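Holo model, 2-acetamido-2-deoxy-beta-D-glucopyranose. Inputs:
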Amino acid sequence: MSILAFSCSGSLCLLQLLSFVSMVMSQRSLDGEPTFPYAHCPPGSNNTASTKFMDNLGHLFKGNLYDESGKSLYYNTTDGEPPDKVYSNYICRFDFSPETCQNCVDNAINSVVERCNGTKEAIVWYPTCMVRYSDRNFFSTLETVPSIYSWSAANITQPFQFVKILNQTFADLIAMAPSNPSKYAIKEGDISDFERLYSLAQCTQDLSTEDCRACLNTAFDRVTEDNMQGKQGGRVLIPSCFVRYELFRFYEEPEVVGPPGPISPPNKGRRRKKNSSARIQIAIITASVVIVIAWKLWCEGEALELMDPVVMHSCDAVELMNCIHIGLLCVQEDPTNRPTMSSVVVMLASDSIQLPQPTQPAFSVGRVVENCAQSSSDGKVCSINEVTVSNVLPR
Ligand SMILES: *[C@@H]1O[C@H](CO)[C@@H](O)[C@H](O)[C@H]1NC(C)=O
Ligand SMILES: *[C@@H]1O[C@H](CO)[C@@H](O)[C@H](O)[C@H]1NC(C)=O
Ligand SMILES: *[C@@H]1O[C@H](CO)[C@@H](O)[C@H](O)[C@H]1NC(C)=O
Ligand SMILES: *[C@@H]1O[C@H](CO)[C@@H](O)[C@H](O)[C@H]1NC(C)=O
Ligand SMILES: *[C@@H]1O[C@H](CO)[C@@H](O)[C@H](O)[C@H]1NC(C)=O
Ligand SMILES: *[C@@H]1O[C@H](CO)[C@@H](O)[C@H](O)[C@H]1NC(C)=O
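Output:
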């Protein structure tokens, strides 16, 4: 954070990129970088779907898993008749626009179809959304298994104060979210003059107040389990609810500022001329290992999701995506695929150039720290093997 002025005036690509880089470096540790999507679909005869079920699922995914109005961040629907009836829902984090939500749901459908082909129950989590289907009617039902959690690698510096604020914060979240008709809450608390804790809790909207509260209590139990203690941030993902806390402001305030727009392909208009100092900075940035993170996010279509919200509010998202796009092109594995400096200049200045899609950059770094929580009902430990972690591949 420190070296970087946090201004977006003039919407300089440079400052936006630097803010992005600083956010990645200081707030999301490389080690703890959670890898999305998480898909959960245990193999085996118990989870093998009939052909008719797969037909119904295909039909549902082709068109039915959309809110008619296109406005909802939660939706549930069915297709077919028993015994091959499919129940399915999606939920998006409350601070995202319906367009971003639908984009995420589309990605989630694609990855669940790919990873869980032939199973009659599956769930997939992205940072922004969750998509789930089953042959059971799970609507309006509290389900706390499987649960997945991930945390940031960075250790807290003031354990007692941190845990105290964390406890207070979650007590407030668990009091507020269930009674909110939209079933979410955010809460902030000061750990010190320099550190502020940001937290979020959300249940699927079909849950009752009591079930939502029970789900969030389960989530908080996971947070307080040993592995999560002492870490600066974490998430718990449960079919019926999710929570997240960080030492940075990872969510948008929907009441104050509109959520970000859809993630558009970064090759259309609206680019302004950049001056030469910005271009030089871009070249420096692209040499950074941080580009790997940008690459991962790019592949997941989530590059904007993790952008510092302060930057998001005041900056031009399309322009920012352009900068990241060009940055990725500059670190292609094959040097012949990298643009020359003069073409980078043209790309930055042009409104209409069609940029090529980047492939995997030449850097590789990072380790996924993740785990599965113990199931509350049957005591079964959900191991890493049950969580299909994505390979990062270009789409
Ligand atoms: C399959 O389901 C049956 C009945 O629900 C259960 O008894 C059995 O243990 C399950 N088998 C596996 C491999 O999970
Ligand atoms: C969504 O779930 C609710 C129960 O929570 C149910 O009443 C409703 O019919 C479902 N919607 C669809 C389209 O199936
Ligand atoms: C799913 O599996 C079926 C049968 O094995 C196969 O024909 C189909 O192409 C697969 N679909 C996807 C999206 O992988
Ligand atoms: C956090 O603390 C643990 C245990 O004290 C230590 O092993 C680990 O290296 C620390 N992580 C970081 C990022 O400093
Ligand atoms: C925080 O909550 C946990 C679990 O409810 C409890 O064990 C712990 O003592 C609390 N810590 C503080 C500092 O309040
Ligand atoms: C170029 O950008 C820098 C900030 O990076 C700014 O100080 C300078 O005034 C800009 N030059 C022009 C010609 O806009």
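The chain is about 35% helix and 15% strand. The radius of gyration is 21 Å.
Archived with the compound record.
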